[in-house]
Every structure is written in structure tokens, then in C-alpha cells.
Amino acid sequence: GENVEQHPSTLSVQEGDSAVIKCTYSDSASNYFPWYKQELGKRPQLIIDIRSNVGEKKDQRIAVTLNKTAKHFSLHITETQPEDSAVYFCAASFSSNDYKLSFGAGTTVTVRA
Amino acid sequence: DGGITQSPKYLFRKEGQNVTLSCEQNLNHDAMYWYRQDPGQGLRLIYYSQIVNDFQKGDIAEGYSVSREKKESFPLTVTSAQKNPTAFYLCASSNQGGGTEAFFGQGTRLTVV
User: What is the radius of gyration, based on Cα positions, of chain B?
Assistant: First the structure.
């Protein structure tokens, strides 16, 4: 089955700096890679996703890149703000005939003012 | 508010007792999931279901059971066979399974006393 590894487990950045979180996956058949943000005491919510036919996707200060050959994908947050402080999870799935959605262990991001 | 509801929010169980966590969605989603969240271990998949009357084991199914008798409902039973049941449990649903956004419930915190 799919195994998703996520690094680092914690990340502290100065406000205004960039944050990068990296994930690797094991199943080369995986073709959907979402990122979720979980604020303290709240449910995880999707912030951005990418499919295997795309190498990069941006949404304002957030971007995700995918390297299918190396089987890794990354989340980039630019110009970090205090409200970016949260736990971020990457995930991977193979959407054709198996709905299993596997998550990484999470990264706790702290933005220092 | 996302259309997926878990109840109760907090649950206390005595050792040796079975307990059932409720998950209901009104999003008309086909796929539903149960995850366990422990500090530092991310979201670990317990069970998932793609259609009514069908479900598959996830990565940590031992000591848990589920049913999917209705499209909108996916209850999780934590049995006495689960050795370390104290955790935060999250239910999720998605429209077409692994290739689309998963919506999470607000979670149930189970404590064994």
C-alpha cells in the first residue's frame, strides 16, 4: 500500500520568510496529492492539491510542486504570516479504482512575529 | 459547515467496553473514511468505504469495526480488542474517492477511563 513520509515534523520561521514542507510517496500509481491545514482545535481543510499530469500549481502565497520521477512533492508558503501557524498534512491517492487516501505524519509550522 | 457531522465530541469509555462513534454526511458523497490522530503520527487510516455495503481495512484496522448500510452514515465501533483506544478520531467523506477533496468532521475525542 501507499506510504507517505513528510519532513520536517516541526518548522519555525520568521514572519515574512518562506516555509517548505516535503513529502515522498511509495506507490508510483498515485496520481492525486492534496495538502491539508489543521488549525488548533479545528478539522483539517484542503488548501491546495495537484494531480500527476501537472508539475506545479500556485494559489496566492501557496504553491505545490510534484516530481513524479523522484516520487516527491512539496508545499511552499511565501511571505508567511502568523495565521499560517498550523499543522500541515500531505496526502496521496490513486483515484482510478481505489479510494484509499493516505496521509503523512504532519508538520507543525510556527510563524514567529 | 462542511455537511459532515461527528458525534459525540467527547466520549469516555471504561476498559473492556465497546463504543460506537457516529459519522453522518449530507453531501451525497460516495466515499467515507475513518482516521485516528495521535500526536506526532498524523492521520492514520482505520477503514474506508467506497460505496454502500462495502468497506476496506486501512492501515490500523485491528480492534475496530465499521458498517455502511446507508450512503450518509459510516459508524465506527471501537472494540475491547483495541489496546490503546484513547485518541482523536476523524471521519471524512469525498465525492469520487481518492481523486477529490475530502471533507472532515469536527472529530471525536475518545478517552478510556
Answer: 13
